[in-house]
Amino acid sequence: xxxxxxxxxxxxxxxxxxxxxxxxxxxxxxxxxxxxxxxxxxxxxxxxxxxxxxxx
Length: 56
Prior knowledge:
Layout: H1 3-10, H2 20-39, H3 46-55
């Protein structure tokens, strides 16, 4: 594990009950939503994009 990731886990910033696979899957799902939105010509401002990222 990368030292940065271990530091985050040690500081209890993330919920350790989720596996790395769960986290990657959640990220993939959100990225897929973004790709689909772009295909549907949905446009977000940079502020809206950061709000969505912060929700993850």
